[in-house]
Amino acid sequence: MPASDPAAGCVAALRATGAEVRETGAFSTEPLGGQGIGLCVAGQEVRVYLYPTPADREAVAARIDPTDPSSLGTSIVEWAGNPKFWQADRIIVLYLGSDPAVESGISSILGPPFARGQGRDPGPNRHSC
Q: Is residue 57 part of a domain?
């Protein structure tokens, strides 16, 4: 991924895996902060959090419990789905869905998730886009 625009690099790398990818727009990034870039990857919602520096990303990632991502420092988040987090350069990627192809595609470019856990059942098609 190009260091100048790691979010665009992530999109390009996902497309290179053969996945259909489109940007869906900004989203509220609380409680993780940063700039939110929504993606639709193979029909599934994926969130990219972009930070000013790798150190900023590292500081946020350090707050995410690797075995229980509902714990974010002193905040508790009730994820609608099963959260999986990846990180690289200045981005954190969150996928709450359950499509193995989407998870595999993200892992093929960013490595295994650094945090994953169980959230509440989002209902049918909740993470479709």
A: yes
Residue 127 forms part of a structural domain:
no
State which residues form the domain around 109: 6-116
In this structure, is residue 94 part of a structural domain? yes
**What residues are paired with 88 via a beta bridge?**
91
- Max distance between CA atoms of the chain, in angstroms, equals 39
Q: The whole model's pTM is what?
A: 0.93
**CB proximity list for 106: less than 8 A, separation 6 or greater:** 14, 41, 46, 84, 86, 93, 95
| pLDDT tens per residue across all 129 residues of the chain | 445 789 999 999 999 999 999 999 999 999 999 999 999 999 999 999 999 999 999 999 999 999 999 988 888 898 989 999 999 999 999 999 999 999 999 999 999 999 999 888 777 777 789
Contact status, residue 41 vs residue 11, Cβ threshold 8 Å: no
Helices (H), 17-68: 54-63
Q: How far apart are CA 30 and CA 44, in angstroms?
A: 21
Is 122 contained in some domain? no
Q: Total structural domains in the chain? A: 1
